[in-house]
Design brief:
Number of strands of chain A: 15
Protein name (chains A, B): YfmJ
Oligomer: homodimer
Radius of gyration of chain A: 20 Å
GO molecular function (chains A, B): oxidoreductase activity, acting on the CH-CH group of donors, NAD or NADP as acceptor
Number of domains of chain A: 2
Keywords (chains A, B): Oxidoreductase
Number of helices of chain A: 9
Largest sheet of chain A: 7 strands, mixed
Helix content of chain A: 10-25%
InterPro entries (chains A, B): ADH-like_C, ADH_N_2, ER, GroES-like_sf, MDR_fam, NAD(P)-bd_dom_sf
Domain Enoyl reductase (ER) (chains A, B): 14-339
Shape of chain A: globular
Chain lengths: 341, 341
């Protein structure tokens, strides 16, 4: 048996390209022979989550306390759904289903200290939900609007990358909380998707000829109270320009920073944070694992009540994981991108 | 009698220059004749506070909810200490001493809605303190470390423009709260001043040959927990690079943004706010007038107990107000800049 992986063949410059990644076919460690050591597990990954944020750690100098920089020639780090095939860790049984930070490959070995979250024995929802609306993606949207920048009823919540994985959930949660949800996206088709499928009250095309700041102003006549930022750069500046006094920014991601060639474009008037007394708070689900169980239950309730829907962009086959990752940066995904292996 | 004013003669480009300002001699309205209308007061300004932040509103497109853009040819807006000469407002008596947002001139007329704070009848401290350590300057330092980003004992508080008006107070308050205070300044002389006069634990010269980020790292071996930013731009980025997980930034001002020619330099990796879960909060004393009385009492206690000292850079004469303002941007002030009229 073979273990197929997608390795980081080249360090992406700007947006990742399919040939930054390459398929590598290795030997699968013999399960019977138990390649695993004490407290390790062997898993089969059956679905891969694509998350734009991982682009950050593809740069050579990107290591931090969340992740080391990804090494060239090694399988690309990501998030997967997997099932335990063999275990020498008493916390796990064969057959357990997990959501874990494993690489883009068919089989992985989990060691103590790895990020691994156990899923319920019987999955109530389609498994891909546990990577999206019930995974890190849904958690990001939930934490942003519940802990970081909770809206009051009637406030205007502006969301960038609004039709992407996090944005597609966040817009719906903003509506659940009684806010007015306005989404920023990159094409007229995605703007239609925001309003007609995701229930946003209004949509802004960030390529609008009048510029982002003017387009946001037209869509947010009462100003912006809360901004959920997945993008950074010029979009962040355009949002700040439209923010109300004591507005709050939840900084979820900064795609323009991961992909900048040279110095990324940055907001060019941070004095507005001072004069409007704005609070900007960065956060990562990475540091909130102990809340996952409780948050998942809340998200499951909303799904069961029909208040929340999952939107997915699905591909199939390990050979398409790199392709799927690149499509996100071209705005080709509507909702959460998942690859079934 | 004449009323001498300093008017905005030209809009500054980058750092303000003395010839951006000009002396204008006008007629003093006849006090007996009472030029003032119902609810107005006539005051004599006897000291002018210089605050770098006002540079922001000298640009043509700078108006916001704090102040309109300053008009060319008109007296420059600022903060003054003054005494009531005539009053048609029952809230004020002749002889009342006030701290008010009036222009750079010898006599001003106060109207309802103007920012005016009454001072105690008998000033316990030198009057210039009521513009500095007991004025907006001291309030900014206090709010930053008490409401926006309060340090825990032993945490490292980094402060930019650390020898300036706000920084010279903030460093002392950080020490009162039991934190380790590290200041960033613009020359070896000012760094000496920080450590030897203001009581900072360490000082960083932002022109150090190794770069600001490296110099901060050396001065903050345990990382930065709290950053009080008066500067923005590259200094802000260098601080962020050295910040610890869940660090807090109090954004007090952004001198590099007021004075940028074209797009100001901006932090070029705001993704660090996300990955380190940093909170950045802008604020202005402008929106906290109702707390002035209570805060002034706290600051007065610290002065009386000898825990807090005032450091002032004093000039004399209305003709020197513009000069004094420019000196701040060249880093020539040690502490609070005040001009006696």
């Amino acid at each position: 048996m073979k273990n197929r992986s997608i390795i980081l063949a080249k360090r992406p410059v700007g947006n990742p390209k399919p040939d930054d990644f390459a398929l590598h076919v290795g030997e699968l460690p013999d399960i019977q022979d138990s390649c695993i050591q004490d407290n390790e597990i062997l898993v089969k990954n059956f679905a891969i989550s694509l998350d734009a944020g991982f682009r950050n750690w593809m740069d050579e100098d990107a290591g931090d306390e969340v992740l080391p920089a990804m090494p060239l020639g090694e399988p690309v780090m990501g998030l997967s759904l997997c099932e335990v095939l063999a275990t020498k860790n008493p916390e796990y049984e064969v057959g357990d289903k997990l959501m874990a930070r494993f690489a883009w490959q068919e089989y992985s070995i989990g060691k103590p200290g790895d990020f691994i979250a156990k899923l319920p024995k019987d999955l109530e929802f389609p498994y891909s939900y546990y990577l999206g609306v019930l995974g890190d993606t849904g958690m990001s949207a939930y934490f942003a609007l519940t802990e970081i920048a909770p809206p009051k009823e009637g406030e205007t919540v502006l969301i960038s990358a609004a039709g992407g994985a996090v944005g597609s959930i966040a817009g719906q949660i903003a509506k659940i909380y009684g806010a007015r949800a306005v989404g920023i996206s990159s094409s007229p088709e995605k703007c239609d998707f925001l309003v007609n499928e995701l229930g946003y009250d209004a949509a802004v095309n960030r390529k609008a000829p009048e510029g982002q700041a003017e387009a946001i102003k037209a869509a947010c006549p009462d100003g912006v109270d809360i901004f959920l930022d997945n993008v950074g750069g010029e979009t962040l500046q355009a949002a700040i320009t439209n923010m109300n006094h004591r507005g709050r920014i939840a900084m979820i991601g900064a795609v323009t920073h991961y992909t900048a060639k040279g110095a990324p474009s940055a907001p060019n008037n941070l004095f507005e944070l001072v004069s409007k007394e704005i609070t900007a708070q960065g956060f990562m689900t990475h540091f909130r694992h102990d809340e996952y169980e409780a948050v998942r239950q809340q998200l499951e309730s909303w799904l069961a009540e029909g208040k929340l829907k999952s939107f997915e962009h699905k591909l199939t086959g390990i050979e398409n994981v790199g392709v799927a990752f690149c499509q996100m940066f071209e705005g080709q995904n509507f909702g959460k991108t998942v690859v079934d292996l």
